[in-house]
Here is the input.
Amino acid sequence: MTTHPAAQGIRTTPEGLLWEPSERWVRGRKGEVTVVDSRRPVLVWEPGVPVPLYAFPREDVREDVLRPAQHPPTDRRTGVREFYDLDVGGVVVRNVAWTFTATDLAGHLAFAWFRRWDSGLDHWYEEEEEIFVHPRDPHKRVDALPSSRHVQVEVAGLLVADTHRPVLLFETGLPTRYYVPREDVRLDLFEPTDHSTGCPYKGTAQYWSWRGAEDVPANVVWSYPDPLPSVAPVQGLLAFYNEAVDIAVDGARLPRPVTPFTASLSA
Here is the structure.
């Protein structure tokens, strides 16, 4: 049986989907058109996908701007019945929404989130706060705690960071990330890149890559210059992928973890 952390209120469908009602007021817009406006959304976790999405009762969706997809994806995801295209003022977004085969979710439409499937609505809101990348998981915590632990980071056998004033970021389902003040990092050994990522819990990150000739994954270092208030202590500090570098905490070297990022870092 499919499980989920803290799954007490979560229900499972025969297709392997997990779902849970939410009390948040959620709205989605395309341009100036409100396509979704719901006070009774449902969070859905698809098999093998670590983050949830929202599904909404059809009555809370502007179905007049949806039409059956002309070119639905050939690699159908688990439990999907039918895809829909969005047409707002002649602007067409392909496969923006879909229905599920699960009886529990009959009468609901799920939506792709902006920057998740490379298509979707332009803006999503929970209550009055705009949410990016994907919905926040109510069963996930992200805590940024200042520490006095001794953290050292080596890249390709070279010590590149050494601090007694890190901020430790604890995020459910991921290894602890060690954020180091810039003054304690050999940032001259790295070069900034154009890469950036967004996180609904932390904000938008900027990245650096290793300057050396050694085989080190690109964008191995990141920082949040303007993090969300809940993780304010990491502002401007630098973190390294534990999966690709060697980190020692209080003199004990940590094993390199295997995470959802491991495959992309070794590509």
Q: What stands out?
A: The helical segments are 262-265. The CA atoms of residues 205 and 224 lie 5 Å apart.
